[in-house]
């Protein structure tokens, strides 16, 4: 058995502030990772780490972009145990997105439809929590409580079998990861 990690944040970006204003959700962005140290995070968001556009499927890092610039960014990590088959399938799904990155775009209108509770999808366009939902659903990792296009970051905290393993700031998370690495050396 392996685990998939769901990473939620709320940065000081304009997009995050707008989502927070309209939803009043504690977290406004979601990403998926395949290791506890979150070496790579995958989502649909800023491709360059700072500017909103271009946006679409991207590989994020705790040491780049908003995460590097603002150690006070609140975040939470959830661990979802999955079968070896679901883990492999999820990784392959992410790799397929990343291999064809130019075929996909960010769905700004999808965020609005999600907030309004409107089931609406557009071919090859995803917002962050919709991207994570598709990976989880198509891999068979878990049953989702809503269609992919209606999933919001906080919906992941309610999945069956999921466990919160960290909540704090990016700075605290980086320090915890650093301490764990030092303890294993």
Draw up the topology in text.
Elements: E1 2-9, H1 14-23, E2 29-33, E3 41-46, E4 55-60, H2 65-69, E5 74-82, H3 84-99, E6 105-106, H4 108-115, E7 125-126, H5 128-139, E8 163-169, H6 170-184
Parallel strand pairs: 6-7
Antiparallel strand pairs: 1-2, 1-5, 3-4, 5-8
Q: What can you see in these coordinates?
A:
- The chain is an alpha+beta fold and 185 residues long.
- It has one domain (2-184): Alpha-Beta Complex (endopeptidase fold (from Nostoc punctiforme)), CATH 3.90.1720.10.
- The protein contains six helices and eight strands.
- A four-stranded antiparallel sheet has the order 2-1-5-8. A two-stranded antiparallel ribbon has the order 3-4.
- β6, α4 and β7 (125-126) form a beta-alpha-beta unit.
- α3 (84-99) crosses α5 (128-139).
- The two termini are 25 Å apart.
**What's the mean pLDDT score?**
90
Q: Helical stretch count? A: 6
- Determine the strand fraction and express it as a percent band: 15-25%
Could you estimate the helical fraction of the residues in percent? 25-40%
Q: CATH top level?
A: Alpha Beta
Which strands sit side by side, in order, in the main sheet? Answer: 2-1-5-8
Q: What are the low-pLDDT stretches, counting only 5+ consecutive residues below 50?
A: none
State the distance separating the first and last CA atoms: 25 Å
Q: Report on the biggest sheet.
A: 4 strands, antiparallel
Radius of gyration: 15 Å
**What is the name of the CATH topology?**
endopeptidase fold (from Nostoc punctiforme)
Number of domains: 1
